[in-house]
Structures are given as structure tokens and as C-alpha cells.
Design brief:
By secondary structure, the chain is mainly alpha-helical. The chain is built from 8 helices and 3 strands; from the N terminus they run H-H-H-H-E-H-H-E-E-H-H. The protein starts with a helix and ends with a helix.
Length: 183
């Protein structure tokens, strides 16, 4: 059996006990967490950790897309982005095209293609912006609302199942951490 990890942990325990009088595991855990994760990235391990986080986020994105695909295949909605456009348009009366594209952090051509597909399927409609003659606004149609109501329960189940292993506190922490990364 390889005891490399155990030896490393023991070295940390010795270092902690040299500078602290506490024997509580909670105090050691906090100290160890600060020791390992509060420094600026400076070594190869930190760079590896950065890559690992990025790859895990990409993996989670792909996993959610894969899990929602079967639900979306039963409708005129072909992607999670189209679903999200409809969902946003259901909450707000209308958006300028570039506003909703910006909300979704998409490149303009990609966002315009999503809008074209939604228009083609008559899930949204476009109309002139009364404040800016150059701009067009879009809003969800009755058909779009019906389609959204049909697929929303399935998508909600996928999202709920996806985060089910997390406690409420963990969900709040993950959300705050993701806000830091997207902020």
C-alpha cells in the first residue's frame, strides 16, 4: 500500500500543531484550507487546478445539453439556448434582438440564427422598436408559450435532478462562486 498521501497529511498535522494549541479537527481543516487554497497561483499544481475547473465547467455544460436534448426533441425547440430565449421572453414583454443575444453571452451571428429558427417555427414574432427605427424587437407568441409550457416541466426535472446531490447551502455557495467567475 502506498502511504504517500498519509505522510503528506501527517506533515501538515505536525506543522499545524507547531503553531497552534488547538486539537480540534475543525480548526485544522480551516487552517489546511487556508494554507492550500488562499495563495496566488504560482506553481504547476495551481495551473493544473485552473485547467481542471475550466474542463469541469465545460463538461457540465455538455452534460446539461445532452440531458435536455431528448426533451427538446419532442418540440420545435432545438437547443437549450432557444429554450432560454423563450423563457426570457415569457418573463418580459419584449426584447431588442441584441439585448437578448447579450443576455445569453452569444456572438451576434449565433444569436441571430437562434432568433431566425424561433421566427421560422412561429414561436416568436418581431416588430419595429418604437424608440429606435434601426432596431427590431421580439416577443413570444401564443404558440411559443404553449410549447414552453409543454417542455418546461421536463427541463425543470433535468435541472432539479442535476443539482439534487447539493444541499441548499451548497447550491448557494456554488451560485456565489459561479457569480465570481462570470462577474
Amino acid at each position: 500500500m502506498d502511504y504517500t498521501l498519509l505522510k503528506e497529511v501527517l506533515a501538515y498535522v505536525e506543522e499545524f500543531q507547531e503553531g497552534h494549541s488547538s486539537n480540534r479537527i475543525e480548526d485544522f481543516t480551516i487552517w489546511l484550507n487556508n494554507k492550500l487554497f488562499s495563495h496566488e497561483p504560482s506553481d504547476r499544481r495551481s495551473h493544473h487546478d485552473d485547467l481542471l475547473i475550466a474542463f469541469k465547467l465545460m463538461f457540465l455544460n455538455k452534460e446539461l445539453k445532452k440531458q435536455t436534448k431528448s426533451i427538446l426533441s419532442e418540440s420545435n425547440v432545438s437547443s437549450i439556448d432557444e429554450y432560454s430565449f423563450l423563457l426570457h421572453l415569457d418573463y418580459i414583454d419584449s426584447f431588442r434582438k441584441m439585448e437578448i443575444i447579450g443576455i445569453h453571452n452569444l456572438e451576434a451571428p449565433t444569436g441571430i440564427e437562434i432568433i431566425k429558427r424561433l421566427l421560422k417555427n412561429k414561436l416568436i414574432e418581431e416588430f419595429p422598436d418604437k424608440d429606435d427605427r434601426r432596431a427590431k424587437r421580439i416577443k413570444v407568441t401564443r404558440k411559443g408559450i404553449r410549447v414552453l409550457k409543454l417542455i418546461k416541466p421536463g427541463i425543470d426535472r433535468v435541472f432539479t435532478k442535476f443539482t439534487e446531490p447539493l444541499s441548499l447551502n451548497e447550491k448557494i455557495q456554488v451560485s456565489a462562486i459561479l457569480d465570481k467567475l462570470t462577474g
